[in-house]
Amino acid sequence: MLDQYKQQHPYLLALDSIIFGFDGESLKVLLVKRGVEEKTWSLMGGWLQPDEGLEKAAARILFELTGLTNVYLEQLFAFGEPHRDPIIRTISVAYFSLVKVADYASKISETFQARWFSIYDLPPLLFDHGDMVDLAIKRLRYKAAQHPIGFELLPEKFTIPQLKKLYDAIYNTDFDKRNFSRKILSTNLLIKLDEKQKGFSKRGAYYYQVDMAKYQQTTDSFLNFIPS
């Protein structure tokens, strides 16, 4: 039995993080500049340590790179083409996470030269990281249509127009205002506040908060969340 193990080839296991953020106007992904080539950008990532499981390692790497904890984090896919890394055979398990840009703003490390890019205007990416981002966008769209995970990208209080802008950005479209508002409010996931957003219109738009008790109950259930 041990001989069978000894006959196998060693591989490295990396974890790459597709970190999505929303700045109020566009959906963005966080990239870092690679030193090996000045104009090459890549996803943030790290290596699996001997005493870690995948989930623990992904959370650790996200914290080391952003300073954030308790953020939405989901395993995406394993990328293992033989020559995806020309240096040594490396398997990468990709995760995508949803963070609030305002929370991350003060955590940016100059060491990594991190920068937010619009998902619709990405620079050339290292290895197969472009494939990772494409797959993560598809997964995000699928999940956001059926589950209320979009709230993970918004501040604690927000208006319906702000929420619509987020989903417009995710799907690269322009949802009908009335249909979107009616669909969102019909989920009963939002709590209307007495406070209004000022400075954007004469009447102002009411702020809402997520009903966290209902949110926790519905994250794993099918909602048909977004109108067609």
UniProtKB/TrEMBL annotation:
Keywords: Hydrolase. Residues 12-140 form the Nudix hydrolase domain. Transmembrane segments: none annotated. InterPro entries: NUDIX_hydrolase-like_dom_sf (IPR015797), NUDIX_hydrolase_dom (IPR000086), WH-like_DNA-bd_sf (IPR036388), WH_DNA-bd_sf (IPR036390), WHD_NrtR (IPR054105). It holds the Pfam family WHD_NrtR. GO terms for molecular function: hydrolase activity. This is NUDIX hydrolase. It comes from Spirosoma validum.
